[in-house]
Design brief:
2 copies of one chain form a homodimer. Chain A is an all-alpha fold and about 230 residues long. Chain A has one domain: Methane Monooxygenase Hydroxylase, Chain G, domain 1 (Up-down Bundle). Chain A is built from 7 helices and no strands. In chain A, α1 packs antiparallel against α4, α4 packs antiparallel against α5 and α4 runs parallel beside α6. The longest helix of chain A is centred in the last third of the chain and has 37 residues. Chain A is elongated. The C terminus of chain A is likely disordered. Chains A and B meet through α2, α3, α5 and α6 of A and α2, α3, α5 and α6 of B.
Chain lengths: ~230, ~230
């Protein structure tokens, strides 16, 4: 059995690697949309199974760490948070794939409008994702709270996108199918922001739990020996 | 420390209770939409914090069970599955709330069309939810696979709803805002079906893991004493 801290390092590394994979997927799917680039969208769809495999690997690693090391207190909360964050990342990968699919569906329509707000939403949620992963790995609640603050900005951009697209559809019914595709793209970006927010909330709970749940932790530590620290 | 199996019973009970809460929320939100009943939509929105509290209670219970009982093999997989299912249920509660919000937004519009497919989608995903929770509690992979099969039916209904609403918007641009609300309702129902599917997949993994991962389990059992069985 390898040393617990070495395996925790591996888990951190894999979560960041998975974060990088889904970050690329978001980036490519939105570029594919803006540049009407079919190849980029197809690449996102082709890469999605690798993200799913990574999710299963990380789940397996966490389950092994739980089984073999019987962690308590912060280590235990870290591992249960890792399970949740893993699920959030996999869903973000799905959402990037949905954007890529919408992008392919829009490929044969002229662009409805310059779509400046959609790339703006995309870079905002990409930055939220990077920050919440950094916050998780470094236990940085300051950065996690920073992510939580961005969520309102995402919602405002989404409202602007919706209002524009509704008005465009009412003026020109011919663009309805393309505009509905773009509404879903904005919705998918908003949900990526929601998942980044979930991750940031997990980080705050993970770190804050140490302070505010001190008494509960003491009880846990008394009831069984605390392994390797 | 209470007996592990008693606490597992309590966990099962709480997950089913949470399942019942979100099932009611779906039912009420869709009835509110179809009957244009404001009170039902408001009830769903009012009840949502209780679902969030239940999610936190269940997370706390699972974390305590992991910390105090050091479960391995199937018990460990059961607890990690419970964490995931808990998250899925909480998201379903959010989606029911989104439907209730759309229902309120639609309250002052005449109904776009009879919407027969939306109630059909709703009762299908409600039945998927009930089945996957039964499957989880009873370890019933047959019923879990049954849920996985329903997913295509949900997708077909969603395609029918989308096609209808797109055509309606193109014929009559005045209904665009209401039709977009209904497109989101269909999308939310589809996602409820996706979460039920996630739960069903967790059940198959949980139960099947015992058979197909037998060698891995042996290794785990050798490396540490297997508690209470």
């Amino acid at each position: 059995m390898r040393h617990f801290t070495v395996e925790l390092e591996e888990l951190n590394h894999k979560l960041l690697e998975m974060g990088g994979m889904v970050e690329s997927a978001i980036h490519r799917s939105v570029r594919s949309l803006v540049e009407q680039n079919k190849e980029l969208a197809e690449q996102v769809i082709r890469d999605e199974p690798a993200i799913n495999r990574m999710e299963m690997q990380i789940d397996g690693l966490v389950t092994r760490l739980l089984a073999l090391n019987q962690p308590v207190a912060r280590d235990l909360r870290f591992l249960t948070s890792a399970l949740k964050i893993n699920t959030d990342l996999e869903r973000i990968g799905d959402l990037a794939q949905h954007i890529a699919e919408r992008s392919l569906s829009l490929m044969h329509h002229p662009l409805v409008k310059p779509m400046t707000d959609i790339p703006k939403m995309a870079s905002l949620v990409q930055s939220m994702l990077l920050k919440c992963l950094d916050a998780f790995v470094n236990g940085d609640t300051e950065m996690a709270r920073n992510v939580l603050l961005s969520d309102d900005e995402v919602d405002n951009l989404r409202d602007a996108v919706y209002a524009d697209l509704l008005a465009t559809m009412q003026r020109d019914p011919g663009v309805v199918p393309a505009a509905v595709d773009l509404i879903f793209v904005a919705r998918n970006l908003e949900r990526i922001g929601d998942h980044a927010t979930n991750i940031a909330e997990d980080v705050v709970f993970l770190v804050k739990g140490i302070d505010v749940r001190h008494h509960a932790e003491d009880e846990t530590d008394l009831s069984m020996p605390r392994p390797r620290e």
